Amino acid sequence: MSEKIDKTNFADLESCDPADVMARTGCEFDPDARQYRINIWGHVYCVDLKAYEVRSEGPGLDSYHDYLHLFILYFLMKSKSIPPEEKWVSEKDIKGGAGFFRGPHTLPTDWISKRFGDDIKAFRQACEKLGGFPLALADAAFSFQITPSLPVAVLYWQGDEDFPCETKLLFDRTIEQHLPLDIIFALAVEVCHSVSVQV
Questions:
Q1: What beta strand segments (E) does the chain contain?
Q2: pLDDT for position 135
Q3: Which fold, 88-196?
């Protein structure tokens, strides 16, 4: 059992209609084992309602403080069956985001900037390893298909004599219909962590 995720999150998912969860998210459900299986960012994860556990089935991603696992639980519980609009917005453009994404909830994009500095080639290689799709934005940018309905983009600018390198995240405009602000933050932390630890 995860020590960082409260059991009530699993109980809340347990109370959901599996047919509805599968229809909204495209996941699979084993009624005997009480387990959901879902593809997240190219990896299959099992949500075990009996064991109160989220685990990868295969290599998976190294979740930062179980934030990825928390995101998976909420995605199964709350996401809507709507396609992305393919219109990028920053965290400050999300309803309530300008006030929420500050202080302790500032997106840790500096992890990526500190990791790669001005090595744009290394940044590109890290994003490609994570299955990123290149975008014609910034000095380099990649979109990651976290789920079919939730893409996230990472934008990177090289520094110069006047300004240091900079990284930003963008989200599809529909993300606020899928997730509350704190879970969007959890997802953003996972994206920044996953990119910054690539070697």
A1: 28-30, 35-40, 43-48, 53-56, 88-89, 133-134, 140-147, 150-157, 166-172
A2: 98
A3: TATA-Binding Protein (3.30.310)
